[in-house]
Write a structure and sequence with these properties.
Blueprint lengths: L3 H18 L11 H27 L2 H7 L5 H28 L3 H22 L7 E2 L2 E2 L6 H26 L12 H33 L6 H16 L1 H4 L9 H21 L21 H11 L2 H14 L5 H7 L4 E2 L2 E2 L6 H24 L8 H25 L4 E6 L2 E6 L7 H24 L6 H29 L14 H22 L6 H6 L7 H13 L1 H6 L11
Antiparallel strand pairs: 1-2, 3-4, 5-6
Helix pairs in contact: 1-2, 2-6, 2-7, 2-8, 3-4, 4-5, 4-6, 4-17, 5-6, 5-8, 7-14, 7-16, 10-11, 12-17, 12-18, 14-16, 15-16, 15-18, 16-17
Length: 576
Amino acid sequence: MPDADTQEKGFVNYMADKEQRAGRSSPAGMVPEGEKKLHEAVCVLLVELCERFTFFGIVCNMILFCTARLGYPSHQAAMVNMCFVGTSTLTPVLVGWLAEYLVGRTKLVCICMFLHFLGTALLPVVSFPFEDVHIDRRHILLTLPKREQKIVFYFALLTASLGIGGIRAIVCPLSAYSLEDCGPKELLSFFNWFHWLVNLNSAVVFVSISYIQQSVARNLGFLIPFVSGLMAMITIHMVRGEMIYKPKTDSSLLTTFGVIFSALKTCCVRHRYLSTAVPSWLDHAKENHGGHYSETQVEGTKSLARLFPLFTFQILYRTCIMQIPSGYYLQTMNSNLHFGGFVLPVAAMNVISIVPLLILVPILECINSWLFSSKNTGHSPTIYIVVGHLSAALSVMAAGFSEIHRKRFPQVEQTLSEELLLVSSMPCFHLAPQYILLGVAEALVTPSCSLLSFWLVPERMRGISMHFLALFNGAGCFMGALIVQTAHTGTQGSWFPHLLHEGKLERFFFFLASLMMVNTLGFWAIAHRYNNLHEDCTSGFRGNLPGEKLLKHEKAVKNYNSVLESSPILSPVEKT
């Protein structure tokens, strides 16, 4: 079973061999190619870890900061957190489009580095005064009015999310790594281990930063994302020439949207005035049917449109996942966090949802190796997605019952971030089942969706497919914020109250669980469309494009000798 270090070393060796086979030789006196590649890989890994460290450092205690420092009600604090996560998910798509058409990759990565630096630098300004800094036994008092604090806070979050998007889209995009020759088994293994590494990093962040922000120095806590962002920018500067990857420009997000809108327009005109039978409504965008796009472009969009039902059913699932930094966080904040004389950080409970993922990935690797070893099997990860969706629904339902159970305990006083709160005396570990169920769901759903989005489209459309997956995941975050606002307004604050013991938060969870159960049944009904990966990859679905066939033959001839020497090794890529 491969581990993270083995994958990283294998990736470096594979890329070095690939460069040597391409005929690139280092001049005399220069650094050896293998050492240079190792240096680049280490820098990429540092950038990835620093960027994730910054992101999770901002998210982990945002609700506590918004409620205790900015005076937000609970539902608004939850909405701010979900909108920030959604914006950070969507900005890589926007930045990738800007880099391709308007600004240029080198110039844009410098702009995004500056925005990332500016956003993380402004966050400590919002948290002034620094109560832990003393001069002559007196506190430094540099406060901002509430209105100016909120303006600076929102501006900092926006600039930080734009910077995060630039780093994810330009420095380490998915297309920068050589995964074209990997089969379904290798791709699923790759996505499993990548998400394993990301969640291991987030576990460290949730334990360390959340404790510092909450218990040691709450105002200095936002300095940690600032330092992490500074480290990321220094690393990018060290290897800026090698890390800015230039993808192929044979397909784009605008072309895909253009095909869809052209087909809709032509289809409406033809339906009104003429009746021309075509195999698919997207065929109306072809030049020989009155459209403006080539057959290759339309066929690629058709393969992508086949995944739209899969993407759509991920929206509500992502809304459930977003309960960890919103509804579940509020439940934990209003529970007893004392454990053996020690006050646990609120965000540290997130580690309980990460532990199942860290345990399940090695087990799933063994299961996948056994299932994919048989050539006659039609194994598809859709069963993982169905089980994961069901686990998410059960998690939200368990949160509803936990809320009923929590309110039965008497209230006690508890100090969080120097704020005295009335909370339930129920130990926070009683909420563990709902965290565990969501962790199981993430271990099953996210790698499987990434595999289907990457594998079930032609090679030239894979980047676009991953962009659409990111768009729908971001839509799920904003959908969660909309549901919270609707529930709070429609029930006059009862379903998502500011003081949980005075409202009915459990009804919100039961409502969301019922929606997720319907969502699970809906995906189960269409899961058969993605069941047979081997058939889809060989029978006209991905190989029906003439250009695609020629490309495959050309690559087969070019790489014949290299296949005898080595095989592709998986490497970390960007998570969307």
